[in-house]
Structures are given as structure tokens and as C-alpha cells.
Amino acid sequence: MKFRSALICALPLALMACAQQGTANEPAPSASQQAQDEVHPISGLKIIPVTVTAGKVKHVFRAELADSREAQGKGLMFRTELPDDAAMIFPSVPQTARSFWMKNTPLPLDIIFIGTDGRILNIAAMTEPYSLESVYSDGLTSGVLEIRGGLAAELGIGPGDLVEW
């Protein structure tokens, strides 16, 4: 009887050890996969890496993916800070000309319009907080990237640079 009680107590421990050993052999998720699994604490949007190649320099942003009509409508409204490595990406599906405004947005932003070839068409730099005036793309876009106002100039990002996400 004592042997059976000891076996019953030991069995769960043995099973837990086997289960833990199995997970140790699984490959660790890559940095890219971890970024794709992250969710922004304020917006609840998925965070993805967005790379802007300016000449020979690559700038990587942790961008909130605004891929729904609701998320695109809200954008960065009501945000009081935006770190230099943070951004929001607005895919254009279907590819279309875009316009943005700064309603309820207290931070100046650089609004980067990305052409259908993945290259920057134009940048509405240092947009005026709370402005209801629209800024426009210079053609059809595959997406729009918003970063802290003035950062594009500081990093040397401009028209013709490649944006990938």
C-alpha cells in the first residue's frame, strides 16, 4: 500500500519533468517573431518591425499596426508621448491616395506617405497638433507611417527612401 501511494505521488512529478524537458528542446522565438507577438499597452494593436532604409542606414521602428478601419480612424489621437523608436503604420488596402489630419492629437508628427513601390512619396513634417487641416499623399500609397515630429529630418529620412514592413 505504501508503494502504491509513493507511486501515485511520484507520477505527477515525473510527468511534469517530461513536459518541461520537451519545451526546452523547442527553438526560442526570433526577435522578429517576438516583436510580432507584442501588443501595445495603450492601443492594444499588434507591434511589428518597420524598417526605413535611408541611403546605407537602416532605421527600425516598433510600429503599432493600424490595420482596421477603427484603428486607422483613431491613430495616435490623445497620445502625449511617442518614443523615437515607436511608430504607427497604416496599410492602404486597397492602394489609394491618402489624407490625414491631427484632430485630437497633441503631439507633432511626421506623416510619411509610402508609395506603391515601398518608397517614400512625401512627408508632412512637424504637423500641427490638433489641426483639422488635412495633409495629402503625392500619389497612391501602400501605407502611411507616423513617427515623432521632426524625427525624419533628424535621421535623414526623405522621399525615395525604402520602407518595409
From TrEMBL:
Which N-terminal stretch is annotated as signal sequence?
Answer: 1-24
| Keyword NADP on entry | no
Query: Sorted alphabetically, which keywords does the UniProt record give?
Result: Signal
Superkingdom as given in the UniProt entry: Bacteria
InterPro entries linked to this entry: DUF192, Saro_0823-like_sf
TM regions (residue ranges): none
The protein's name: DUF192 domain-containing protein
